[in-house]
UniProtKB/TrEMBL annotation:
UniProt keywords, alphabetically: 4Fe-4S, DNA damage, DNA repair, Hydrolase, Iron, Iron-sulfur, Metal-binding
SUPFAM superfamilies noted in UniProt: Uracil-DNA glycosylase-like
Catalytic activity: Hydrolyzes single-stranded DNA or mismatched double-stranded DNA and polynucleotides, releasing free uracil
Pfam families for this protein: UDG (PF03167)
Protein name, UniProt field: Type-4 uracil-DNA glycosylase
EC assignment: 3.2.2.27
Residue runs in coiled coils: none
GO biological process: DNA repair
NCBIfam families, A to Z: UDG_fam4 (TIGR00758)
InterPro entries attached to this UniProt entry: UDG_Type-4/5 (IPR051536), Ura-DNA_glyco_family4 (IPR005273), Uracil-DNA_glycosylase-like (IPR005122), Uracil-DNA_glycosylase-like_sf (IPR036895)
Origin species: Biomaibacter acetigenes
């Protein structure tokens, strides 16, 4: 940690902006007087433990994630007419399962919460049918400001907002990620088609990523296509849940 602090001082002298994750690690260390942490895995073990101090750390981390996010002006989306506020991820920071969508829509922007519109309600229904309490997973988006007319975020906007998503990924460190639609799929595997990749595991950076259709896509289907899409998504969610159970058999979604 002393080496890390010296390194950081050096960067500050050179006016190099610190990665959010290092800033947060230092904030956490100072706030909780953490002395002997030699690796990010060691820190994660402490953060994820089941005791009141770890719980306070998780609350602290979440508040910091929101604080950094609210100060973010790294792309122009925050100043577009369609964006009235930033929409942070939400849920359980201890969860081995994270769901990632594209970006906030009208309802999410209005309420400042992810997946609360019609698509979000469908997502909650799918989770409940699988016996998963929505509060026991972490749900976020690739971009945190609503794009104009709900258009797909531009690559430069996704890249800019990756600072925020990476912070969530670092401190939540999920084992399994459900990528809801093409945008999060391409975040983890660029130049991919959701039509070709859905239902197929991607293992990257220590995460098992299961790409599936975005709930808004299901809502746009009709007739036989609707039935097929529903079954595809159901199958993908079941695969993701089975993987979490294999990797973290002790975790309860209730
Ligand atoms: S979309 Fe992300 S990067 Fe762009 S301003 Fe909003 S929070 Fe910052």
């Amino acid at each position: 940690m002393a080496d890390l602090e010296n390194f950081i001082k050096e960067l500050e002298v050179q006016e190099i902006q610190l990665p959010y994750s290092i800033k947060l690690m230092l904030d956490l260390k100072n706030e909780f007087n953490l002395k002997e942490i030699y690796s990010s895995n060691g820190l994660l073990e402490i953060i994820k433990a089941d005791n009141p101090e770890s719980e306070s750390m998780r609350t602290f981390i979440y508040e910091k994630i929101k604080e950094y996010l609210n100060a973010c002006t790294d792309c122009l989306l925050h100043s577009s007419d369609s964006c009235t506020r930033k929409v942070p991820g939400e849920g359980c920071l201890n969860s081995p399962l994270m769901l990632i969508g594209e970006g906030p829509g009208f309802d999410e922007d209005k309420l400042g919460k992810p997946f609360v519109g019609r698509a979000g309600q469908l997502l909650t229904t799918i989770l409940n049918k699988l016996g998963i309490n929505r509060q026991k997973v972490y749900i976020s988006n690739v971009v945190k400001c609503r794009p104009p007319m709900n258009r797909t975020p531009f690559v430069k906007e996704m890249k800019a907002c990756s600072r925020n998503l990476e912070l969530e990924l670092t401190f939540i460190a999920p084992k399994v990620i459900i990528a809801l639609g093409s945008v999060p799929l391409n975040y983890f595997k660029p130049n991919s088609s959701i039509m070709r990749e859905r239902g197929k595991w991607i293992y990257t950076r220590g995460f098992w990523v299961m790409p599936t259709f975005h709930p808004a896509y299901i809502l746009r289907q009709q007739g036989k296509a609707l039935n097929k899409t529903k079954w595809d998504v159901w199958e993908d969610f079941n695969k993701a849940l089975a993987k979490v159970r294999e990797l973290c058999p002790e975790y309860s979604f209730n």
